[in-house]
Each structure stands twice: as C-alpha cells, then as structure tokens.
Amino acid sequence: MGKTFFCSQCGAKLVENSKFCSECGTKVVRIEDDKNEEMDFVEVKTVIEQKDDAANQSKQKSKSFIRTMLEERLKIAMYLLPVAAIVFALASFGDGNVIASTLHLLGGVLIILSLFKRCRKKAILRIAGIAFVIIAFGFMVSNVETNLSDKVQDEHLYEDDSENKDDYKNTNQDSGFTEEWYKTYTYFTQPETGDTLEIGWDDEDVLAFYVNGMGICYCSPNSYVRGKEGEYVYNDEAEEAVIKYYPEDGNYLIVLFAEEERTYYPVDEMIEEETFVGSYYVTDTVVGTDLKVHPWFAYTERSGGYLWVKVLCSVYNCSGTTLTFNTPNYFSINNNGLLQEGYCDYDYVELAAEAEISTWICFTFPENANTYLTNMTMYVENNEISLADKPQYGEERNCLEGFYYLENSNTRAVIEKLADGRYQIIKYFVFGGVEIHCFDLYDDNTFVVDGNHCTWKPDECSFTDDFAGHTYYKR
Question: Domains in the chain, please, with CATH?
C-alpha cells in the first residue's frame, strides 16, 4: 500500500502522482537525494508547525528590516550630522536676529532628515535653496534694522547735543558764561592762596583746568550738566569740576575734585609775563668758568609720582680744554626753597674744547612741589637764570628764532638755529609732551615741519601752519 501525502500549505490530502494540490493549487515539490533519485514524498506539516514557521519568518523579516534601516540611517547621518554641526557653529556667530534663528532652524532640519530611512537628493537641495533665500533675506533685514538703529541713535545724539548748546545759548547771558568763556581760555586768580587758574577749550575740544600752569582736570565737551541758576557742573568719569557764577560781584566759585570751595577772580586780559602757563621761553645767556649756557625752553609736568622740571639748553665748552661734563657739577635749581641738582643724557661724556651740545637739563621734585616756574631759579656755576618767560624785543623779533605761542591755546613752540645752518623747532603741547623737528628755511620764507608746509611772515613776527591753518605768534 502506498503512502498518503498531504499538502504542506493547506493540509488537504493529495491525489497520488498529482502535481498540484486540488484544494489550494500549491505545486507539489519532490525532493531528490544525492543519487538524484526521485523521492515519493513531500514535507508534511501540521497546522501548529505551520504557525510556528510563519512566526519565525516574521521575526527574521523584522530583524532584517531594523538592521537595514539602522545601516541606512547611519550612512545618512555620517554625511548630514557634520553639516549640521557646521551650521550650528556658524549660527553661534549670529547676533541673535533672523540670521541666527534661520541657521539654527536649518541645522535642526538637517538633524531630523538624518533620522529618516531615505533622504532624496532633491529634497536636500530644495531645503538648502529655501534656507539660502531665508538667510539672504535675513541679512537684508538685519542691515536695514542696523542702519535704522544707527540713524535713530545719531538723531538722538544730535538732538541731545543741540539741546545742550541751545541751553547754553539761552542762559549764557544771565549766567555769565560768555562766548569767550565757551571758546577761549579764561584766566582767574585766588588772592588767599596765590593760585592761578586757567580754564578753556583746547584744540581737541576738551575742557581743561590748569592750576598754577599744571593741567589737573579734563572734561569732554558734552560732559557738563547745567545746575542751578548760573551754575555749571562738569563731570568726566571720576573727575569733577563745579563752576558757579555770582553776577552781583562778577566772581566765580570753582570746586575742583573734592577740594574745598575757593573763589577765583577773573582776569580780563592775559598779563604780560604769561604766568598762567606751565612752559616758558628763557632768553638769559650766562658765561661761567667752564661753560657758556643758553637756555631755550622750560616746562613742568607730573609723571611717575614726581614733578619734573625740564630746561632745554645749549651748552658750550669755553674752558679751552677737554672736560668731563657732569650735570650736578654745573646745574642746580631752587624751586620755591627746595634745592635740587640736575642730570641729563650727556653726563660723564668727554666734551672737547669749543664743542657745543643741546640737551634737556632735568630736575625732579616731590609730586606736590610748586609747579609755578616764575618761582624757580636755575644756577649755572655761580650764575642765576630765572625760568620766567620773557618777551623778545628789537632785532630778536625780526629773525625766525625765538619763542612762539598758538592763539587761544597752551601750545608753545621754540625755534632755534643750529650750527649747520638748519633750524630746529620744539613744540610743547597743552597736555604735556614735546615734539622736536629739524627743517630748512627756503628763500620764499617757507619750510616743512613733519610733512606740514609752513610760511614765515617776518613783518608779522609769526609763522602759519598752512595744513592745519594755525598761526603761531612770537612773544
């Protein structure tokens, strides 16, 4: 008796030698052995075995799908995540407006795209194009906002400055602050202490306060605040100066920093000796046993916790022999009772007979020492030289050499003729500091100083800086 066969798919009984199941139509598969002999049976499974087999196949398919999806995502993430990192790095340079927001959004979109199974090139290009348009629009909006903000800020600054100037113009007549006060230097004296005060606007439009010729307080033009009637308060960081005007007697009450209040009396005109500035032209020439000395220029400054007194001198060896030049052996100074020896860059230098040098003779004092040069006397060997400013007269005024001052400024200049026929100019500026330049005087009375063309006018005893438009007048 032959064997009974059943369909492996539906379990129906198969007809002998049939090639298909009569119930489900499944093709009957015959398995051949190694000898290629045809077998007379097919695999027969029960219903339970069929269910187990289907479950196993489903698990295998799920594992394969997950593995394939992760592999594809990893490949996409390998390309998109670095791009997203670069986008976020660029966004960190944004200013918090549309540009930065757009870049952050673009980075987020790229990260989300990296999580999908498939990411088509067209989609990436489309998103990149949209992001580019948004970024370009963001730049345009940002520039417009910046320009509008700057314009509004400039208008506010202009309005504030105009209000300050209008406020000044409306009150200067009643308060005593005249146009001369606003634009030029004003001089005051303090009888009780003997102090002198100079106040005014310098070349850089900075309000400067000078006590005894030494600048101690500087304020920007817009730093003042109008107080009560006839009162102006100047504030600049930690520095403060209060100026009050009393119209009944024409006096000014001035408070500098935290000092006690002092009343200063205005001086209508600058006195002849110009004692209210901290720099002077010295005309005395002295002849000693070893040296012939001609001072040109003297000034004071505070620096490094000391008061410095510096005098520019021409020193000539008239001893007839070579000598070792040592400043303390020849120069000393009396500063209002304080004696001090000098020093210079040529100390211990061998100076040949009839040789001449030009150098700064320097003296140092405590920082709180007197800065008033008219109270100082310099000694050269046994000769005395006053450091007070002295005007030039007669033939001295007809030559280019001499001492000059700039109108409405504390800037001073000294011009001297050198041994080689050229000239040297020394400029001393309102805030201290010295510039020295050499130049040639041409036949048309013009010369060039530090690249600036200047014109000397002998009849007017002055020279003009043609570039800056400044005129220096001889004392």
Answer: 1-38 (no CATH), 49-141 (no CATH), 179-267 (2.40.128), 278-390 (2.60.40.1240), 392-475 (2.40.128)
